[in-house]
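Q: Got a minute? One more chain.
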Amino acid sequence: MNIAEVSRKYDLSADTLRYYERIGLLPRVGRTAGGNRDYSEEDCHWVEFIKCMRAAGLSIEALVEYVALVQQGDETLQARKQLLIEQRFQLAQRIQEMNETLQRLDHKIAMYDDQITRCERKLKKEEPSQ
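A: Always. Here it is, folded:
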């Protein structure tokens, strides 16, 4: 699959894909005889994984470290697991903070609903009866 196809499939710009490869976030992508990137199924799995992890808020740095560990082989299994555990913990904290923010917003919205209801009742009382 060429870079344009991968770009469309995963809704990432070609520049982003090149950047991910340049910084080591995406393992080296194979090339055609003409020198164009030729994404394998495994490369696409990496793109999908990276996109998912980035959407969850994982840093580029953490993901680069993870990919580097994967490339070092099975002796890094425990280190990879620990890195993912740490990232999970940070994500759980962000989710908790977001849930607290959501509750505050719900409370504010409810306050406006109450005020709107009071204003509407007040306006109905002020309308001249016919």
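A: The two ends are 74 Å apart (CA to CA).
Q: Perfect, thanks.
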